[in-house]
Amino acid sequence: MFEDRFKTTKRAGMLGIIGNIFLLLIKALVGFISNSQAMIADSVNSAGDIFASLMTFIGNKIASVPNDEDHNLGHGKAEYIFSMFISISMILVSAKLLFDSVSTLILGNNLNFSWFLVIVCIVTIITKLSLYIYTKIAYQKYKNILLEANMKDHRNDCVVTSFTLISVVLALFGIYWFDSVVGIGISIWICYTGIKIFIESYNVLMDVSVDDKTKNLIIDISKKYSDIKELDNIISTPVGDKYLVFITIKLDGNMSTFESHDLADNLEKDVNKLDNIYKTIVHVDPI
Description:
This protein is mainly α. It contains eight helices and three strands. The mean pLDDT is about 85.
């Protein structure tokens, strides 16, 4: 399961790199020839996508390394570290695009309509839609934040390029200001997505606790054990895409050591069955 997860993420990263290099070249060439601010913004976005796919590839490679003496819980947090790199690059790219687009809106845009712009937009939408569908299927199966970041990036590109296509078509009728407006919209969209991914990665790296839904499931599981007098606390920390959970339970002090440990072992096994739990450790307090 874990091996398939890392292989799929690696494949998604490689496909993203290849696809985005191709799109960067044709977008930049046609964008600069036609002076389309929206297409130039789209090409810069593709450059950011190459970086994102590269970060996915590297982050996944590190995260796939099994646990060792120095990293007892594995290297899963590498996914979130490199997802944060992706988010920062998206925010920086959006700032540059916003500046350029506002400048052309104020100073004017000398967009030269070309059918090559239309063709590039259509090719981009088809390519990105294919990558989005592939990555979405993989993300739904493995819940890897690197896949999620790439999935959203591909989805955003489909939307962005669709608006670029609209601005190109409007230029055919002499409406040039919309091209700069689309560039501004693209930059804001990229920034918003980057901030969301940054917050998600930051929360995990700062050891955010498991969600309330999972806590309630753990409490419900513990209630099945009549010998548990009280569930004292639930402490958790992220390990990659899953959580390490520490549970303290209170049992009758007259129970034998064997009985109390047997109950704790069974509780650990039951909680470990939850999808987002990596490992459970139960501590017993006698009362």
